[in-house]
Specification:
heterotrimer; A alpha/beta; B mainly alpha; C mainly alpha; A: alpha/beta; globular; C: mainly alpha; 10 helices
Chain lengths: 256, 368, 295
C-alpha cells in the first residue's frame, strides 16, 4: 500500500493556478525528487502536503488518513517532517530547544502536570532531553547544545534543521532544497547523510532540489513540474533525456 | 581567593536545600514583620505592593516577552479579578456566613479573569502583532465601560469600604506560588511552544506544536495571575473604581516588564521591585523624610523648589524613564537572560556539554 | 418634510461633524502606520496639545480664528517632527515593540506634562460667532458648518498631496519598501518627517475644531478621542488614507446612533466591541487588502 497518495490535487492563489492536477504516489522507503524551474510550484506541493495551504481540489492521503483540511500541527503529529527552503530555525533559542520543541506532539502530560512539574512531567522531560541529545550527537551538534541557533554557521544550521525535522520521528521526510548554498564537497557529505538517515530511521524521503548532482546521484524517481503541471516522472536516466524536460529547462530545441 | 569564593558560591547555588530554606525564612519573616512591627507600616505597604507588581510583571512577561505578543489587557484582567473578589468578600461571603474565606475569594477572582482571558486567547489564533494589541486594548476598554455601566457594582463611582484582608504573608504566598507556576509553565512543553511561536509561528506549527493549545493556556495563565493580583490589590487599597484599572495601569506593568527585560522571570522581579521602590521614593513625603538629615539651609530650598512639586512631576518622570530605557537600553536589565536559580536543574544540565575531559564550556547556562 | 426625515437628517449632520474630527486624527495614525508600520500611540495626545495651543493663542494672545488655526497646525506639526526625531527615529531598526512602547511613553509624558503645567480644565473663548440656521426644521450652526467644510477641505488637500505630488509619490514608495527606495535618491528621513508633520498638523486642526465645538479642554481629552480615531483608521484599513476617512464617518455615524437609542454611557462599549469584532472578522479593514505570508 502506498504511504502517501496525492490525487488530482490543485491549488490556486486568487486567480493564479499554482498547482494543477498533481498526482503522486510514494511507497515505504522511496527516495524521490521533485524538480523544475523556479516558480514551478514545488514548494507549494510541500505546503499542500504539510497543511500550510489547503488544497482547493483533490485529496492527499497519508497511510489512509485524509490530510486536506487538517492543521499543520496535526499533520506533523502524524509523523510528516519537513525542512525549509530558506532556513527557519527558532533563531533566538538554543540548539537543544530547537530539537526539543519538535517533540511537542510526542510529550504526554497535561497542562496541570506541566504547571506543577509533577508526575509524568519529570519522566517525559528526561526522555525528550535524552532523545534530543541523541539526535544532536548523530548530527555532531552535541557540543553546541547550549548555543543560540542563529550563531551557528550556515552549514550547521542546515544540519540542525534536518535534526529538528527528525525529532518529530517522521515516516515521511520532506526536504526543501537541502543543498542550497553548498559547495560540491558539502553536497557529497549531504548525499551521504541523506542516505544514512534514510536507512537508520527507515524514512521515506521526498526532496526538492536544483543541484542535479544530488538529484541524479541518490534519487530513485524524479518528478518534473513546470507552471504547476507535471511534465514527466520516472527514473533519473529517463528524465535526463526526456524531450519535454529539456525543453522546459533549455527552451525549445529546433529540429535537426 | 576570589576563585575559591566563587566556587563556594556556585556550590551554594547548586544546593538542593537552598530554595526551601529561603522560602521558609521568607515565610517566617512575612509572618514576623507585621506581628512584631519589625518594619514601619509604610515599608510593609511598599513590600506588599512590590509583591503584587511582581505577579503582574511576571505574568505579563509571559505574553509580551516569551510569546512576543503585545498585550495591553492586563489592567482589564486585574479589574475582573478585583471586582469578583470584592463582590465575594463584601456581598456573598458575609451573607453566606463564612467571612474568612479570603483565599477562596482571591482564587475566584483569578478564575474569573482566566475565563475572560479566553476572549483574548481565541482571536489570537487568527490575529497577531499590532492587531492583537488592538484587540487587547479593546478588551480593556470594554471591561472598563461595562463596569461603568453596571450600577450594582457602583458604576463609575466604584466600591469603597472594602475590608483590608491582604496581609504580608498572603502576598508572599501568592507571589511565590504564581511565580513558581509561571516558571514551571515556561520550562514545560507549553512554555517551549510559547517561545517557538515568538520565533516563528508557522515553523512551530509545522514542528507539531499545537499553537492554539499553547496560546490558550498561556493567555489563561497570564490572565489568571493578573486576576489574583487585582484581587489582592483591591483588598489592600480598600477602594476600587473603573478609573484605577485604565490604560495607565497597563502601561505601568509594561514599564516594569521592559525595564526588567523581556523573556526573563528574574528580570521581571527586578523590574517590578525597582519600579515600586522608585515610584515611592519620588513621593514628596518619602523624599523629604529621606533627605531630612541634610542641613536645613540645603534642605529648605530643596524642599520648597523641588521636593514639594514631586507629586505632580513624578508622573512626568515615569514615562520619560520608559522612553529613555527604550532608547538607550532596549533589552532592559536582564533581556532574554535568566538567573541560574530560576532554571530547573534538568534544563540547565541538558544544555551543558560534558566533553571527554569533563570540562564545560562557559556561558552554557545562557538560555536565549 | 416629515419629522422622521428631519430627525434623521439632523443626526446625519451631527455624525458628519463628529466624523470629520475623527477623520482628521485618524489620518495621522494611518499615514504613520502606512509609512513606518508603527502605531503612533502618542498621536491622540498631539491632538490634545493642539487644543491647548488653541487655548494659549486665543485666550492669552487674543488671536482670531484663522491665525489661531494656522499657528496651532504649525505648532503641532513642529511637535510631531520633534517627537519623531527624538523618540522614534533612533528606534527604526529596533524591534517593533520598542517603538510602540516608546510611543505609549511619549503619550503619557505629554499628558502628565500638560497636567503638571495646567491642573484644571480650561475654557476656550468663543472664536467664531455662533449663528444657527434653520432649514426646514434642520438646525445647522455656523460652527458645524465650519468644522465640516474645513475638514473636508483639508482631507481633499491631503488626498491631492498623497496621490498627485512628488512628495506623496515618495511617501507611497517608502511605505512599500525601505531598503531600496533610498537608492532611488528619495530622502527617506525627510519624507518621514514630512509625514509626521502633516499628520500632527491635521491633529492640531482637529484639536482646534474640537475646542470650537466642545470648549472645555483637559489634558486627558486626547486619550478617548485618540483611541476612537485609531479605531476609525483600523476600521477603514490601517495604512489606507481614504479608508481612514470612510472609517471615521462610519464610527461617527454609529456613535450618534448609539446615543440616539441607548444611554450615552454605552457609546464606548459599542465602539470598542465593533472594533474587536471587525478585527476578528476582517483584520485588514474595509478598504485594506490582506497580506499573504510566504513560506
Amino acid at each position: 500500500m502506498a504511504l502517501l497518495t496525492a490525487a488530482k490535487v490543485g491549488h490556486q492563489f486568487g486567480g493564479l493556478c499554482a498547482v494543477a492536477d498533481f498526482n503522486l504516489e510514494l511507497h515505504h522507503g522511496d527516495l524521490m525528487a521533485v524538480i523544475g524551474p523556479n516558480g514551478a510550484g514545488k514548494t507549494t506541493v510541500f505546503n499542500l502536503i504539510t497543511g500550510v495551504y489547503r488544497a482547493t481540489e483533490g485529496s492527499i492521503c497519508f497511510k489512509g488518513t485524509e490530510l486536506v483540511g487538517k492543521n499543520p500541527n496535526q499533520i506533523a503529529a502524524l509523523h510528516i517532517g519537513r525542512t525549509f527552503q530558506n532556513i527557519r530555525l527558532f533563531r533566538d533559542l538554543s540548539v537543544l530547544d530547537n530539537v526539543r520543541i519538535a517533540h511537542h506532539a510526542q510529550i504526554n502530560y497535561t497542562p496541570l502536570e506541566g504547571l506543577l512539574h509533577l508526575g509524568r512531567y519529570r519522566r517525559e522531560e528526561q526522555r525528550i532531553i535524552d532523545n534530543s541529545r541523541l539526535l544532536l550527537a548523530i548530527f555532531k551538534l552535541e557540543h553546541l547544545a547550549g548555543e543560540t541557533a542563529k550563531n551557528l554557521p550556515y552549514g550547521l544550521q542546515r544540519r540542525l534543521e534536518i535534526a529538528r525535522a527528525l525529532a518529530i520521528s517522521p515516516e515521511l521526510l520532506l526536504l526543501d532544497e537541502p543543498a542550497a548554498g553548498m559547495n560540491p564537497n558539502e553536497i557529497d557529505q549531504l548525499m551521504a547523510l541523506i542516505q544514512w538517515i534514510r536507512q537508520e530511521f527507515k524514512l521515506t524521503i521526498l526532496l526538492i532540489e536544483h543541484q542535479m548532482k544530488l538529484v541524479m546521484g541518490i534519487c530513485e524517481r524524479i518528478k518534473v513540474l513546470d507552471f504547476g503541471v507535471t511534465l514527466a516522472e520516472g527514473p533519473p536516466k529517463m528524465i535526463q533525456n526526456h524531450p519535454k524536460v529539456l525543453e522546459a529547462y533549455l527552451g525549445e530545441i529546433p529540429d535537426g | 581567593m576570589i576563585a575559591l569564593m566563587r566556587e563556594q558560591w556556585d556550590l551554594l547555588l547548586e544546593n538542593r536545600w537552598l530554595v526551601p530554606i529561603l522560602l521558609v525564612i521568607g515565610f517566617g519573616l512575612a509572618f514576623a514583620i507585621p506581628e512584631y512591627n519589625l518594619l514601619s507600616v509604610y515599608v510593609q505597604l511598599i513590600l506588599m505592593y512590590a509583591g503584587i507588581n511582581i505577579i503582574l510583571a511576571v505574568s505579563l512577561n509571559l505574553v509580551n516577552g516569551y510569546m512576543g505578543e503585545f498585550s495591553l489587557a492586563h489592567a482589564g484582567f486585574m479589574a475582573v479579578g478585583a471586582y469578583t473578589a470584592v463582590l465575594l468578600t463584601m456581598k456573598v461571603f458575609p451573607v453566606a456566613g463564612f467571612p474568612f474565606l479570603f483565599p477562596c475569594a482571591v482564587f475566584a477572582g483569578g478564575l474569573a479573569a482566566a475565563l475572560l482571558g479566553i476572549i483574548v486567547a481565541i482571536p489570537s489564533f487568527k490575529v497577531r502583532g499590532d492587531y492583537l494589541a488592538i484587540i487587547t486594548l479593546a478588551f480593556l476598554m470594554i471591561v472598563k465601560s461595562l463596569i461603568e455601566n453596571i450600577d450594582f457594582i457602583g458604576g463609575p463611582r466604584g466600591i469603597s469600604g472594602i475590608m483590608k484582608l491582604t496581609t504580608l504573608p498572603w502576598v508572599f504566598f501568592w507571589t511565590v506560588a504564581l511565580v513558581w507556576m509561571v516558571r514551571n509553565f515556561i520550562y514545560s512543553k507549553y512554555g517551549r511552544g510559547v517561545l517557538s511561536i515568538r520565533e516563528d509561528e508557522i515553523a512551530s506549527d509545522l514542528m507539531s506544536v499545537n499553537t492554539r493549545h499553547v496560546k490558550f493556556f498561556a493567555f489563561m495563565l497570564s490572565s489568571f495571575c493578573a486576576g489574583i493580583a487585582g484581587a489582592l490589590f483591591a483588598h489592600l487599597l480598600q477602594f476600587i473604581s473603573p478609573r484605577i484599572f485604565d490604560i495607565t495601569k497597563s502601561t505601568d506593568i509594561l514599564i516594569m516588564v521592559y525595564l526588567g527585560g523581556i523573556a526573563s522571570i528574574g528580570g521581571s522581579i527586578l523590574g517590578a521591585t525597582l519600579f515600586t521602590v522608585l515610584l515611592e521614593l519620588l513621593r514628596p513625603s518619602t523624599m523629604a523624610a529621606l533627605l531630612s538629615w541634610l542641613p536645613s539651609f540645603v534642605f529648605e530650598p530643596l524642599n520648597e523648589h523641588f521636593i514639594s512639586h514631586l507629586g505632580v512631576w513624578r508622573m512626568v518622570i515615569m514615562p520619560l524613564a520608559l522612553i529613555l530605557v527604550m532608547l538607550y537600553w532596549p533589552r532592559g536589565i536582564m533581556g532574554l537572560r535568566e538567573f541560574r536559580g530560576f532554571i530547573p536543574r534538568r534544563d540547565r544540565e541538558a544544555h551543558h556539554y560534558i566533553n571527554p575531559q569533563g570540562e564545560e564550556p562557559d556561558g552554557a547556562t545562557d538560555r536565549r | 418634510m416629515s419629522d422622521e426625515v428631519v430627525y434623521w437628517l439632523q443626526q446625519t449632520l451631527n455624525a458628519l461633524q463628529l466624523g470629520s474630527i475623527y477623520a482628521l486624527i485618524a489620518l495621522g495614525y494611518t499615514m504613520v502606520y502606512g509609512i513606518l508600520t508603527m502605531i503612533n500611540f502618542a498621536h491622540g495626545d498631539v491632538f490634545m496639545i493642539g487644543a491647548f495651543f488653541c487655548f494659549l493663542l486665543s485666550s492669552m494672545l487674543g488671536l482670531t480664528f484663522a491665525p489661531t488655526l494656522l499657528l496651532t497646525m504649525l505648532g503641532t506639526a513642529l511637535l510631531g517632527v520633534v517627537i519623531e526625531r527624538l523618540a522614534y527615529k533612533p528606534l527604526r531598526q529596533a524591534p517593533r515593540v520598542s517603538a510602540i512602547i516608546t510611543a505609549l511613553g511619549v503619550g503619557l509624558f505629554l499628558e502628565n506634562f500638560t497636567l503638571a503645567l495646567s491642573p484644571y480644565p480650561k475654557h476656550i473663548p468663543m472664536l467664531l460667532e455662533n449663528v444657527t440656521w434653520n432649514l426646514h426644521g434642520i438646525s445647522l450652526s455656523s460652527i458645524q458648518a465650519v468644522i465640516i467644510s474645513l475638514s473636508l477641505g483639508l482631507m481633499l488637500l491631503l488626498d491631492y498631496i498623497v496621490h498627485r505630488t512628488s512628495i506623496g509619490m515618495a511617501m507611497r514608495a517608502i511605505s512599500w519598501d525601505k531598503t531600496y527606495v533610498p537608492l532611488m535618491g528619495i530622502p527617506v528621513d525627510l519624507i518621514i518627517s514630512i509625514t509626521f508633520a502633516i499628520g500632527a498638523g491635521l491633529a492640531g486642526a482637529a484639536g482646534t475644531m474640537y475646542a470650537l465645538a466642545y470648549p472645555v479642554i483637559d489634558p486627558y481629552m486626547g486619550i478617548t478621542v485618540g483611541w476612537k480615531a485609531f479605531i476609525c483608521a483600523v476600521v477603514g484599513g490601517i495604512g489606507n488614507i481614504r479608508g481612514a476617512m470612510v472609517g471615521a464617518f462610519i464610527l461617527g455615524g454609529v456613535e450618534i446612533m448609539v446615543v440616539a437609542f441607548f444611554p450615552s454611557t454605552y457609546r464606548d462599549f459599542v465602539a470598542f466591541t465593533l472594533l474587536m469584532l471587525l478585527i476578528v472578522i476582517r483584520p485588514y479593514g474595509i478598504l485594506g487588502k490582506p497580506r499573504i505570508q510566504k513560506v
